[in-house]
């Protein structure tokens, strides 16, 4: 069975109460549910992991290979700083889609650059929690050879 990992970085455990004007009122659980539902609709399954610690996220990426077919990853603030996460993504052979809830390009200039984007399959930016679902659909359809 196809398996997806929904991976979330620092402060995303606070979704719903964290800057709702920017990130909306939905919780991390809501985001994960969107992916789980999309996965089930395609006969697949999804699991999730969130950490506020860079090394934990590196471990999760390394360990995903062989266990999952693809990763939906919101690296949060580490997007803009982490060579370690970039190298971890480069080291594995499963696709990773980068997701940002907010439109980082409308925000501070330090959010405009992603260290990870060029080693990811693609990016979904600025579409709220729907971005998680859309990233999942892109992965699932690519596995089915439809896209
Ligand atoms: C974010 C955007 C990042 O710049 C920020 O540090 C986050 C969340 C987003 O989902 O919009 O924590 O990744």
Protein described:
- This protein is 35% helix and 18% strand.
- It is α/β, with parallel strands linked by helices and 147 residues long.
- It has a single domain, classed as Dehydroquinase, class II (Rossmann fold, 3-Layer(aba) Sandwich).
- Strands 2-1-3-4-5 form a five-stranded parallel β-sheet, sandwiched between helices.
- Helix 2 runs parallel beside helix 5 and helix 3 (54-64) packs parallel to helix 4.
- The longest helix is centred in the first third of the chain and has 14 residues, at 28-41.
- It binds 1,3,4-trihydroxy-5-OXO-cyclohexanecarboxylic acid.
- 1,3,4-trihydroxy-5-OXO-cyclohexanecarboxylic acid is lined by residues 11, 74, 76-77, 79, 100-102, 104, 111.
Name the descriptors.
binds 1,3,4-trihydroxy-5-OXO-cyclohexanecarboxylic acid; alpha/beta; globular; 147 residues; Rossmann fold
- How many strands? 5
Roughly how much helix do the residues carry, as a percent range?
25-40%
CATH-defined fold name? Rossmann fold
Mean pLDDT score:
97
Envelope shape: globular
Strand content: 15-25%
Reading off the top of the CATH hierarchy, the class is best stated as Alpha Beta
- Tell me what the CATH architecture is: 3-Layer(aba) Sandwich
Q: What molecules are bound to this protein?
A: 1,3,4-trihydroxy-5-OXO-cyclohexanecarboxylic acid
Any idea how many domains? Answer: 1
Compute the separation of the termini in Å.
Answer: 19 Å
The major sheet is characterized as:
5 strands, parallel
> What is the CATH superfamily label?
Dehydroquinase, class II
How much is the radius of gyration in Å? 14 Å
Number of helices: 5
Structural class: alpha/beta
Low-confidence stretches: none
Order of helices and strands: EHHEHEHEEH
Strand order of the largest sheet: 2-1-3-4-5
